[in-house]
## 1
Amino acid sequence: MAEENKKFAVLKFEGREIELPVVTGTEGDKALDIQTLRRSTGLVTIDPGFANTASCRSQITYIDGEKGVLRYRGIPIEELVKKSTFVDVAYLLVHGTLPTEQERLDFSSMLNLNSLVHEDMRRFFDHFPQGAHPMHILSTMINAMAAFYPNVDINTTIANIEQSCARVISIVRTIAAFAYKKSIGEPLVYPRHDLSYCANFLNMMFDSPVRPYHISPEAVRLLNILFILHADHEQNCSTSAVRVIGSAQVNLYATISAGTSALSGPLHGGANQAVIEQLKMIYKDGDIHKFIKMAKDKNNPFRLMGFGHRVYKSYDPRAVIIRKECERFLARSGITDPLLDVARKLEEIALKDEYFVERNLYPNVDFYTGILYRAMGIPENMFTVMFALARLPGWVAHWREMIGDSTKIVRPRQLYIGRTIQEIGEELETRSSRFLL
Ligand code: SDX
C-alpha cells in the first residue's frame, strides 16, 4: 500500500474551514477522504452513477482511462495475453501473483475436481423453457448453488473459501455450456479431466454423440485471450453489485448471481450481443450515416453500442487487442463477415466526428468481441454468458478483498426531495375523515 501522504483539502462552509485528507494511490491517483464529512459539517456528497466516487481501496486492477492502461495486479494485459492462460490470470486475480508451476497444477486440479454440476441441479435444466436466455438460466443456477453447496460465510476456513472460489469459477463454466445445450435441445456434454479450462468449455459447447468436436488450438488460444481481457475491470457495475451484495454477508453464490444479473444489462455486459444486433440492422439498412446521426441526436435514445465508456476516454486497450485478433482470425480462416466492414466504417466515421471526439467516445471491449465470437461459432445468445464466465475470477477476487477489508455493510445516503411534513399536514387537514368508526 502507498504511504498515504498527509495532504489536505480545505472545505469552506458556513464561515468554517474544514480540512479533509487527500490520500494517494500507488499509481499517483488521489482521493478526497470524506469519511468525517457528515460528522464535521452535516453535509453528505451526491454523485449519481458514482462517476466521481471511489467506493473502496483495491489492489486488484489498475485502469488509467486517459492513457488506455489496464493492469491486473500490476501486470499489463498486453503481457498477460502473450504469456499466460486464463487459469493463470484467474489465479493472479484471486491470489495476487501468477502461480508457480506447482500452484498452477494444484489450482487446475481443484478446478477439475469442482467442475461437475450436482446431479440434482442438472435436472433443473429439464424444466427451463427451450427459448430461455442462457443469462437468465446462468444467474438462476448460480443462485441455486447455495442450496447444494455449503454457505461461504466470512468466518469460514481459508480452505473452504479456496474450494468455493474454485467451484464458482469451474462449475459455472459447466452450467453455461449446459445452458447452451439446453437452448438447442441437445444432450449435455460433461467436463473432461484431460482438457484445459477453455478447451473443456468449447468441448462441452460443441461436442455431440453424433458429431465429435475437433478442439482447434487456435480457438483455445483465442478463448484464453478473450477471457483474460474480460477477467476484471475494477469497480464496474457488476463488480460493484458483487461488493454491495457481499457486504451484507450474503453467501458467495448469491453474490455472484447478483453480479451476473447486473452484467446482463445492455449498457454493460449485454452490449456485446447488442452490438451485433445493431451492426446487422445497419448492414440491412445500408445507410450508416443515418445511424451516426441518430446516435448524436440528444432526443433520440439510440446509442452506438460498443462505443463509449465511463472510464476510458481513449481507445479501450482491450478493444485494440480484440480488433487485431478478430481481423487476423477472419483473414486466416478465409471468413468474410460484412459486419466487420460495417464496424470498421462506423469506427472510421465516429473517430473523425466532432460529437464523438468531443465526448471521448471510442470503441470499447464489446465493439469487436461479438464479430470474433461469431467467427468462432459461438451463438449470439451466449455472448454475454462468455463475458460472465470471464468475469468470474474478477468478481471472486473483489469479494475476497472486500470480506478481508471491511465488514461494514454498504449503505449510501441520499438527498430527500419529497413532500414535507408541512405539505402533508395541510393535505390531511383538507381531507375529510373517510373512516368513521
Ligand atoms: C462495459 O464500467 C466498466 O468497466 C464496464 C466494462 C467492464 O469491463 O466491466 O468495461 C464493460 O460495460 C463496456 C460498456 C458497454 N456498453 C456499451 O457499449 C453501451 C453504449 N455505451 C453507452 O451507453 C455509454 O457510453 C456507457 C454506458 C458505456 C457509459 O456511459 P456514461 O459514462 O454514463 O456516459 P454518459 O451516458 O454520461 O455519456 C456522456 C455523453 C452523453 O452526451 P451528452 O449528454 O454529454 O451530450 O456521451 C454520450 C452521451 O449521450 N454517449 C454516447 C454514447 N455513449 C455516451 N452517444 C452515443 N453513443 C454512445 N455509445
## 2
Amino acid sequence: MTKSTIIAPSLLAADFSRVAEDIKSVEAAGADWLHMDVMDGHFVDNISFGPTFVKAAFQVATVPLDVHLMVERPDHFFPRFTPFARVITVHVEAKHDVKKTLHAIRAERIMAGLAISPPTPFEAVEPYLDQIDLLLVMTVNPGFGGQSFMPETLDKMRRAAEIRARRGLSFFIEVDGGIYPNTAAQCREAGANAFVAGTALFGAPDRKAMVETLRKSHV
Ligand code: DX5
Ligand code: ZN
C-alpha cells in the first residue's frame, strides 16, 4: 500500500466550479493522495473549506485524502474529518495538547501528521517523531497557494531524515508550498518522500507529465 514517493495535488489550486472534473483529472494523471487545506481564518489569514467540501471530494475521489488542518483548535475539529481522511495533519503551533491529538487521530486508525511552519524551530517537533506517521515540513508560510519555496526549510528535512534513519522510524516527510520539479528535487535530496503541489500541478498543461516529473525529480 505504502509507495516510496507520494504525489499529492493540493485541491486549493483546483477550479472550484468544476472540482469533480479536476479530481478525476489529477487521479488520471497518477496522483497518489489528494491534499486538502482546511483553514479557519484564525490559525492562518485565510478561509478555505470545511468538512462538507471534504466529504464531497471523498465521494468522488478514488485516492486517499490527505487533510491538512490549518486551524487553531485541531483537537476540536479533527473528528469532523475522520470519516473521509487517510491522513490528518495538525500544526505543532496550534492551540492543543499535541501528543494527545496525535494519539486521538491514531486511535481512529488514521495516519497522524504533524506540521511545522517555516518560522518554528525544528526542536518543536522533535519530541513527537516517534508518535507520527507523517511530518509535514511547510516550505512556505501556511495560508495561501502560489508562494515561493523557502530553501531554509531544507535543513528541517535533513534533520528529520537523519533521526528517522537513526531511530528506525518510518514516517513520511512531506513538503508543501512552492513545490515544482526543481524544488521537489532539492527536498528529495534532503529526505522528503511526499510532495504536495498545487499551482505546479493544476497549472501544468500536461498534468500526467508533471506528476511523473515530480515523482522522478532529482538534483
Ligand atoms: C499553503 C497550503 C498548500 C498550498 C500549496 O498554505 O498548505 O497546500 O495549496 O500551493 P502551491 O503548491 O501553489 O504552493
Ligand atoms: Zn497544505
